Amino acid sequence: MARIPRSVELTQVAEWDNGKLRRKEDYLAGEEPLEIRVGGAPLSVTMRTPGHDRELTAGFLFTEGLVQRRAQIVSLKVDSQEGERNRGNLIEAELAPESAPDMEKMRRHFFAASSCGICGKASIDSVRSRTLHQPSQDLRLDPEILVGLPDALRSSQAVFGRTGGLHAAALFDTRGELLVLREDVGRHNAVDKVIGWALLKDRIPLASTVLLISGRGGFEIVQKAIVAGLPVVASVSAPSSLAVQLARELRLSLVGFLRGRRFVIYAGEERISKSSREAGCA
């Protein structure tokens, strides 16, 4: 019988520690390909950590512009046929007729993105062509809430705690309450999972939430956040130059180096409001 993909694998390793070598068991983050098909036709293959695959697929279809609302996703079925090598690694998406994509055009797009990476000006132009809307300007976030989010993220990373090898993406409300957290070997997959969670629960746009990611804030992350209506994206590492350019153009608040009691605001400073204590000292 075919093996079911798992998010964590157990393996034997040799550990060298201060001159002594010993054998032990260790955990590895799972990584397997997920093939996404639409209407029976292959669309994309992504390397991901198994788990929450329907959310990943929904988020991918939404952030890549194949669907614009939850109702356009008729079904998401995991292929579970016995005996197939691909068991559990295939998602079949059925979309509403008006959402049926030009499969040849979409395959060329995703192949180019995966083989040569995202290229600056062309990518910005492609985002503009999708007529994305600026996130809500109403949200205000207390810096004291913001600096507490990384601890909440780390304490909820179940698989990372065992493997040390996963990225995480999480949605928080403006009080700092964790709404959802997803982990994956791919940072963009983790983001698609949380956005897919929101889409399947009809919570798009995410106008009153904050996205926190465990790694750097790249262009693709900012693009996906804007599609989902997220007004604030924060990361514990640095953003890329293209991510900053896109955030400033579409007025998304982008925060980097969120560590301890320090962070850097690269765009959208107006949403990061002063706490009452800071306002009194101004």
CATH superfamily of the domain at 143-281: Cytidine Deaminase, domain 2
In DSSP terms (H or I, runs of 4 or more residues), the helix count works out at 10
- The side-by-side strand order for the widest beta sheet comes to 8-7-9-10-11-12
Report the count of strand segments.
12
- CATH T-level topology of the domain at 143-281: Cytidine Deaminase, domain 2
Mean pLDDT: 83
How much is the radius of gyration in Å?
Answer: 20 Å
**What general outline do the C-alpha atoms trace?**
flat
CATH class of the domain at 143-281: Alpha Beta
At CATH's second level, what is the architecture of the domain at 143-281?
3-Layer(aba) Sandwich
Give the uncertain stretches in residue-range form. Answer: 111-121, 275-282
Largest sheet: 6 strands, mixed
Span between N and C termini? Answer: 67 Å
Helix content: 25-40%
Strand content: 25-35%
Structural class: alpha/beta
Helix and strand run: EEEEHEEHHHHHEEHEHEHEEH
Overall description:
With 282 residues, this protein is an alpha/beta fold. The protein has a domain at 143-281: Cytidine Deaminase, domain 2 (3-Layer(aba) Sandwich), CATH 3.40.140.10. It contains ten helices and twelve strands. It has helices spanning 53-63, 103-116, 120-129, 143-146, 149-155, 158-163, 187-200, 219-227, 241-249, 276-281, and strands spanning 8-17, 20-29, 32-38, 41-48, 73-78, 90-95, 167-173, 178-184, 209-213, 232-235, 253-259, 262-267. The strands form three sheets. A six-stranded mixed sheet has the order 8-7-9-10-11-12, sandwiched between helices. The protein has a four-stranded mixed sheet with strand order 4-3-6-5. A two-stranded antiparallel sheet has the order 1-2. α8 (219-227) packs parallel to α9 (241-249).
